[in-house]
Automatic annotation (TrEMBL):
Entry GO MF terms: acyltransferase activity, transferring groups other than amino-acyl groups
InterPro entries reported in the protein's UniProt record: Acyl_CoA_acyltransferase, GNAT_dom, Plant_NAT
Domain N-acetyltransferase: start-end pairs: 6-174
Name assigned to this protein: N-acetyltransferase domain-containing protein
One matching Pfam family: Acetyltransf_1
Top-level taxon in the UniProt lineage: Eukaryota
Amino acid sequence: MGFEEATIRSYEEQSDRAQVEDLERRCGVGPADQRVLLLTDTMGDPICRIRNSPMYKMLVAMLDKELVGVIQGSIKVVTVDRPPPKDLARVGYILGLRVAPLHRQKGIGSSLVRRLEEWFGANDVDYAYMATDKDNGASVKLFVNKFGYIKFRTPAILVNPVHNQPFRISSNVAIEKLKIEEAEFLYRRFMASVEFFPHDIDNVLRNRLTLGTWVAYPRGECFGSNHGQVPSSWAMLSVWNSGELFKLRLGKAPLSCLIYTKSSSLMDKFFPCIKLPFLPDFFHPFGFYFMYGVHREGPMSGKLVRTLCKFVHNMATKCKDCKVIVTEVAGNDTLRHHIPHWKLLSCLEDLWCMKAMKVEEKYSLHELTKSPPARSLFVDPREV
């Protein structure tokens, strides 16, 4: 017996918002066998995760009057490692694919992906890509086996809790906040050739959600960003306040995590003079900071990255809503060893898959996916 075919159309905020939010609540983020399940709260704006992208679209699947599926996509220009002068590519990002549990295995997810790819094609997209947990068998089967996506990169998502006590910053390290123009200059000079570097980095830096860009370098050395003068060792990163867009909470976690969180919170409440660090309450919606554009140069740069992470942590302690700090780096990037993170919440092998949307790009994509992974990867905070 065949299934009734769903109607795919563009998202309409006034009529669809409530049903999309209900669907999001019923569909947890992450595979069912994952020990820690992160759920999202879009705070009344289901399209918040792509709203800051240069171009974006959300599609919904309808059966009669019931909304049974959604998918989101965005388009931008990025750096892709292919022969010049074609080192820039127009890419489409797929995220937020959800199908109601009672309506799965009916081809609804496939219809949503197909229609979103048609939108990519109509807007001259070179490559489409998506990200998923490497153990999410259903997602990998749909995109790789059915739609011909190729496994591309396995970056690491690093998550660190914000404790109640600030960290001590070494007096041997100078930390300086850059002007937007200075930050853009440095990013274009040192990261413009990094995979997936956004061509409109100036728009990212000027977005109200970017809290700033900071550099760290040995105290006593000079740093002149506009004139290209950099110290022997230095590091930089920018911070995006994702908590203003949507919230996170733990849908499930080991009992030990719950006990530790509750007990450490009680210790801080009744014995504040001890000043022990405690884990925040992850079981109610919370915001987070996303560190992007992490870059380093020189023999001391690992220590400088760690110092910047401590600086961002101390910033986050002043924000009541921010409970974790998140960043994403290339899987083989040694940066991961210098960025503090909690393994229970982190995903050390995320999976990116790509597909050529044009015939002439298929060979380039084959060469791209077969080439050794680049050391650095730029993760756009607008797509987190």
